[in-house]
Amino acid sequence: FFFKLPSDSFKYLGWCDIEEHSVRGNQLHCPRVREGPSEEELFFRKEEHILKKRKQVTDTEKWEKRLQENWENCAELNLSFQDLGDLYQVENFKRILRRLIRVEKLWLVDNSLTDLSAIRLPRCRELNVNKNHFTSFKQLPKIPQIQHLSLAENNITTLSGISDFRHTPLESLILKRNPCEFQERYRQLVFSNLPNLKMLDGIPKLPEDCSPPDVRFFYRMCAIL
């Protein structure tokens, strides 16, 4: 037998669509911001009865929702595991990211993200985008104040574009379980592109991580036996 839960009628509603509460975005550390299925999708699922008939939204209601979604005031936010299954959900997700002008710590883990290059996070110091589908550093958002960046379990194949972070205060970088990790002289290449980096994949910068002297130098030396 299938028994409906009391919350069943709310399962496709965003937190700000639920009536009679005044919770704002910056009060939630892990909000569910994914939009629910469209009316057409619900019809195919035979779940059209779940949502009440959608009324025409007034300008006042739109403004009240915008005030409730006060993403501009968020300093720390976790938007991981959003299950963004449709394009309109991805676009809504990016709409929210564009409003995070004050966020300093942001987690976007496991969201199947591929390109956030159009997003700018001017105050972000810590960004975790583990378990996504990035293939290049060029696809990351603009993060001029980044200090700690985690990119584990993506599909970054080369270190091309990593030098863009040379002029940021980046201190620690995690690239574990990316194809670029298997590149010859991987650690030396990363540190040569990012001379101010202090830690890579959880391991502090070691003397052997510094680029070795130019090999041609040794050809100008003679060994006396």
TrEMBL record:
Q: Which domain of life is it from?
A: Eukaryota
> What is the protein name given in its UniProt record?
TILB protein
Q: Does the keyword Repeat apply?
A: yes
Q: Which UniProt keywords apply?
A: Leucine-rich repeat, Repeat
Species of the source: Vireo altiloquus (Black-whiskered vireo)
Q: Does the keyword Repeat apply?
A: yes
Taxonomy of origin reads:
Eukaryota, Metazoa, Chordata, Craniata, Vertebrata
